[in-house]
């Protein structure tokens, strides 16, 4: 049917950021600190995305073992949200409520205008420019006009709705399975034996505890007071772009925790009284759209520890493509890749500005999980510190492009100087 409706342009801003996960927060704060009028729209009731609403239980690495690769805005958030844990810690558990408050604080103090419960539903374009983004909220449908638009949705929703180009999954379109993350209580942390999990998992599989023989158990991340965050189980065959598939995945994710409760109680020391205290309000999606950008960061860049003249940051997390199914060879493939596709202390790869510029538009940028890269690089950059790095760069570049509305006209050296001034880590020759 044909549906038409006249709507108001409710906001006109310098920069619109869509999606308030780690990359969106970093982008909005960075642009606002450069004096620009910024609006950040988030569909949930808090910022943080997978790290808060999705209950992902830990930050990935902020350092390469020598240098703090995720510095600037990301490091500020990390230090405030996990005050008592050294920055050098590889996996850092955090309190999601503390992280939510930290996001609220940093955005408010930066002067960012933001809206919760505000969902992108359409994008209007004019040639190679985005003209406005359309949102739905409790008060109806409205438009936002901006000079520069930043897609930090993780799924590439802004660019996709605008008709922009993107890639998805492997050659057959298959993507990594998501996880419904969880919170657990009543664990005897003094007796909890993480090392027993692999052996006992095999026994539990033989005993018929699980519906699926999923041997890739990331597991529990203990916290004080007998609590832990859980990154447990994969929901195979989920299509991250289908509301039907996501709905079914949420239902199975909640049901499957009965199996994992039995596993921990009956097989793992210290977990005899473990209790599931909560499941996430959203799936932990690992892989979705990757927006086609002027340069697609790729696995050869990872292997080469690549440098770029237009570098806007560096990172170092391994290539981490989870098992795709329960086939016997998948776990061996994952172990080999995860163990070999990783760096020695002090090593990192550069991230070029071109990988944040969608090929389809002149006034748009992207950051975080949906940036321009192949799926192996996406499996490295997708963790929260990588999202902070690319978000800070996108927000800074957007601020520099706000007057012209052309993100390719940003002088790279000016962008790099602004990033270094804000604390970002670049290779020494560019500092």
Offer a few descriptive terms.
431 residues; alpha/beta; four-stranded antiparallel beta sheet; 11 helices; globular
Over the alpha carbons, how many angstroms does the gyration radius reach? Answer: 21 Å
Per CATH, the architecture of the largest domain is: 3-Layer(bba) Sandwich
Q: What structural class results from the helix and strand content?
A: alpha/beta
Low-confidence stretches: none
Distance between the termini: 56 Å
Average pLDDT confidence is 96
What does the main sheet amount to? 7 strands, mixed
Helix amount = 25-40%
In CATH, the topology of the largest domain is named FAD/NAD(P)-binding domain
CATH superfamily of the largest domain: FAD/NAD(P)-binding domain
Describe the structure.
By secondary structure, the chain is α/β, with parallel strands linked by helices. It folds into 2 domains: 8-170 and 287-430, FAD/NAD(P)-binding domain (3-Layer(bba) Sandwich), CATH 3.50.50; 182-279. It is built from 11 helices and 17 strands. It is globular and about 65 Å long.
Task: Please summarize what this structure is.
The chain has 431 residues and is α/β, with parallel strands linked by helices.
SSE layout and pairing:
Layout: E1 8-18, H1 22-33, E2 38-41, E3 58-59, H2 73-81, E4 92-93, H3 96-110, E5 113-115, E6 119-126, E7 129-137, E8 140-151, H4 157-161, E9 166-168, E10 182-185, H5 197-206, E11 219-223, E12 227-231, H6 243-267, E13 275-279, E14 289-291, H7 299-304, E15 311-315, H8 328-340, E16 349-352, E17 364-366, H9 375-381, H10 384-401, H11 412-421
Parallel strand pairs: 1-2, 1-8, 2-5, 8-17
Antiparallel strand pairs: 3-4, 6-7, 7-8, 9-14, 10-12, 10-13, 11-12, 15-16
Helix pairs in contact: 1-3, 1-10, 10-11
């Amino acid at each position: 049917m044909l549906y038409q409706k006249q709507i108001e342009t409710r906001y006109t801003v310098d920069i619109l950021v869509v999606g308030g996960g780690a990359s969106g927060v970093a982008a909005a704060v960075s642009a606002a600190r450069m004096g620009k009028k910024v609006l950040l729209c988030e569909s949930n009731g808090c910022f943080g995305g997978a790290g808060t609403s999705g209950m992902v239980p830990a930050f990935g690495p902020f350092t390469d073992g020598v240098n703090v690769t995720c510095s600037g805005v990301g490091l500020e958030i990390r230090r405030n949200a996990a005050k008592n844990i050294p920055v050098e810690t590889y996996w850092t558990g955090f309190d999601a409520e503390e992280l939510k408050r930290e996001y609220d604080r940093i955005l408010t103090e930066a002067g960012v205008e933001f809206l919760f419960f505000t969902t992108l539903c359409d994008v209007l374009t004019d040639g190679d420019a985005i003209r406005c983004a359309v949102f739905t909220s409790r008060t109806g449908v409205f438009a936002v006009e901006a000079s520069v638009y930043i897609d930090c949705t993780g799924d590439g929703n802004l660019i996709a709705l605008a008709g922009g180009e993107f890639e998805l999954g492997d050659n057959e379109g298959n993507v990594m399975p998501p996880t419904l993350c969880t919170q657990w209580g009543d664990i005897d942390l003094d007796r909890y034996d993480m090392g027993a999990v692999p052996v006992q998992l095999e026994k539990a599989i033989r005993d018929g505890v699980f519906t699926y023989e999923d041997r890739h158990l990331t597991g529990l991340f203990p916290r004080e007071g007998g609590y832990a965050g859980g990154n447990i189980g994969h929901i195979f065959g989920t299509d991250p772009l289908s509301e039907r598939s996501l709905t079914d995945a949420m239902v199975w994710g909640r049901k499957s925790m009965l199996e994992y409760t039995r596993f921990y109680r009956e097989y793992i020391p210290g977990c005899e009284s473990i209790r599931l205290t909560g499941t996430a309000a959203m799936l932990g999606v690992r892989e979705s759209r990757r927006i086609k950008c002027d340069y697609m960061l790729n696995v050869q860049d990872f292997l080469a520890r690549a440098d770029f003249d237009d570098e806007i940051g560096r990172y170092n997390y391994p290539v981490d493509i989870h098992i795709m199914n329960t086939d016997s060879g998948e776990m061996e493939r994952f172990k080999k890749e995860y163990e070999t596709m990783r760096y020695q202390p002090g090593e990192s790869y550069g991230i070029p500005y071109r990988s944040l510029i969608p090929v389809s538009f002149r006034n748009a940028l992207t950051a975080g999980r949906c940036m321009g890269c192949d799926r192996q690089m996406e499996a490295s950059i997708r963790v929260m510190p990588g999202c902070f790095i690319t978000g800070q760069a996108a927000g800074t570049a957007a601020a520099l492009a706000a007057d012209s509305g052309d993100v390719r006209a940003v002088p790279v050296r000016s962008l790099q100087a602004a990033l270094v001034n804000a604390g970002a880590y670049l290779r020494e020759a560019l500092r």
